[in-house]
Amino acid sequence: MNEIKTFRVAGLSCSNCAALIEEAAGKLPGVAAASVHIGTGVLRLEKAEQHNRENQAPSFDQLDRLVRSIEPGASLLSPSGEDDQAPVAEGAPGDAQKKHGFSLRSLDSQSRVRFALTGSAAGFFLLGFLVDQPLLFVVAYVLAGFSVILRAGRTLLAGRPLDESMLMTVATLGAWFLGEGAEAAAVMVFYQVGDTLQAAAVQRSRGAVKSLLDLRPATARLLQGDEESLVAAGSVREGDLLVCLPGERVPVDGVLEQGCCAVDTSAITGESLPRRLDQGDAVRAGSVVTDARVVIRAVAEESESTVARMISLVEEAASRKARTEQIMTRLARVYTPLVVVGAVILAVLPPLAGFGSFSLWGYRALVFLVVSCPCALVVSIPLAYFAGIGAASRRGILVKGGSFLDVLAGLTRVVFDKTGTVTTGSFAVSQVVPAPGVDRQELVEAAFRAARSSNHPVSRGVVSFITAARDISVTTEDLETRARQDEVRETPGRGTTVFPGEDSVIQEVIRGGSARHLREEAGLESGGEGDLEGSPFHVARGDRYLGYLLLNDELRPGVVQAVERLRSQGIGEIFLFSGDSRKAVERVGSLLGVDRAMGELLPHQKVQEMEGLVEEGIPGGIAFLGDGINDAAVIARADLGVSLGGAGSDAAVEAADLVLMGDDPGLLSEGIGIARRTRSVVFQNIVAALGIKAAVMVAAALGVASLWMAVFADVGVTVLTVLNTLRILLRPRR
């Protein structure tokens, strides 16, 4: 994969300009692909492979000049991966601050100047209308239209004359020429009003990403000996000790080294209640310590923290456009030239054919031009998908692209992994059952050596039980010493095979795991598998079956209700896949009320089962929700791969299209609700924009529409669709 470089574009609120920057940047030497998203204000470049000097990637200055040539008010900031993106709050390091609502004070200086100019232009226009003074219309036109006309001139010189600024300039200057000064001023003033409100809406929608940036404290309290010192959060290294006081955010991922506390993780996971953490527990960056001074040992640098991953996922998601966005982008490229040609035909052919004067048809053509601007579509649709991604991220649901919102909205089937997904993944041994003639001590020692090197939840449960047991004559240190030289081979989803080291008294191979593993590896039968109410860990040494340890797992709180909510949302079929024993999987499946529960599946068999479900051709998508490294393949194969962000392995999170940061499968139903709301808003915006514009364009051609109607059909519809889009960010009442 080619290297990706990201830049922030300040002052970008024009959707047409964003499309032009994307197109121009993609054509630069050394660039394989480019994307600009108005919602995030981020320019992403995929560098081409360098074969010669001419194919080198463009410099920062080249890109900055390109951006400024298309949008004079915009500028390029340093690469987003290199600058300090997080706003630095005054006061203690990592202070938790929350910002709500929208106000002029929240805008940048450029936006405030735009609001002032637009407000002044609107004031002069209204005054001119009341006192019937043409000079005031001229003042209003100049205040509102100067930047639009300047942009039109720049695009004309750059060889890109057919954009919305040029349409507005031609239409309003034509109206002045025809003696319709009041209407010309009205068109320009209300166009600028709509453009200003659009810019404010874009900044409002960016609040989702800004709220993530606020989770990254600028400083951290570094503990060295007995000395505390304030350092930049970016300078913290793995293994450093950090102090967090009540009310401060945790700057990096870590574990509690000293003390215990409650942490507010609502900004990361969406959970409303604080979590209680004890010494040795993991704590995520962005969490707020609420009630005690604690010392945390860093386990990752700031750039690799949970918050950094969330920011990266959200920004990458915005660059992956949904199919509807792509269609509208391509449509906008041919739409404007066709409209200009149509306006020219409307202005010239009827008078030449003797159906009226050039001034009459020229006025109708100007109305046609104003109506035809595609602002409502090219603004509201990308903004809707970004708002959907932002609304989901605030609930701890990270969607990796607008296209996945569409898939999420259309889901009809869901497959759950069992262990660690619908269950807690914390197995506890309930029984130790030696085979006839086998000493319990021998079974436990062999089980420890078989489970010690495996990261499977069942193996971890076996090791935890044995290390904590008090009725075993051999100490944990002795067991570790005997197992240290073992060579272990693991079959994912089945079990382990242990080849004892040279110093081991008994050289027979030890096998531990499922009954199938023992049967296929050593031809041993365990017996009684189907009657066991739990997950057995079978153990054998050489050709002798030693017995098993029976473990049980608990359902995650709320998972039954989560399945019920999915049913109420129209999910027709729900399945349960697991590598655990059939009996254990069927027991959990019956508690959840799934349609089918399948056990003893290896990773490749899960993929085969998923492919079988996909090939059934049932309308709608199918999702797989898992957490482990052995789920990565089937997550990638599903129409929508979903992973738990905290409990999930890095491989599963990387392969997933949707990440649930709260480790709560119930968030999937919330994500479906947000996705369906987003799809509904996109559909409403398309129908409203195309319907109203088509009606007024026909009316313009027939001579029954004025420039006032055109202003509503263009600016009014744009404002309405943008306001409709912002509804996505509102959390619906339950």
UniProtKB/TrEMBL annotation:
Its EC number is 7.2.2.12. Keywords: ATP-binding, Cell membrane, Membrane, Metal-binding, Nucleotide-binding, Transmembrane, Transmembrane helix. Its main location: membrane. It is found in: Cell membrane; Membrane. It comes from Alkalispirochaeta americana. Pfam families: E1-E2_ATPase (PF00122), HMA (PF00403), Hydrolase (PF00702). One of its GO terms (cellular component) is plasma membrane. This is P-type Zn(2+) transporter. Residues 6-45 form the HMA domain. The keyword Metal-binding applies. Residues 215-315 form the P-type ATPase A domain. The chain crosses the membrane at residues 113-131, 137-157, 331-353, 365-387, 682-702, 708-730.
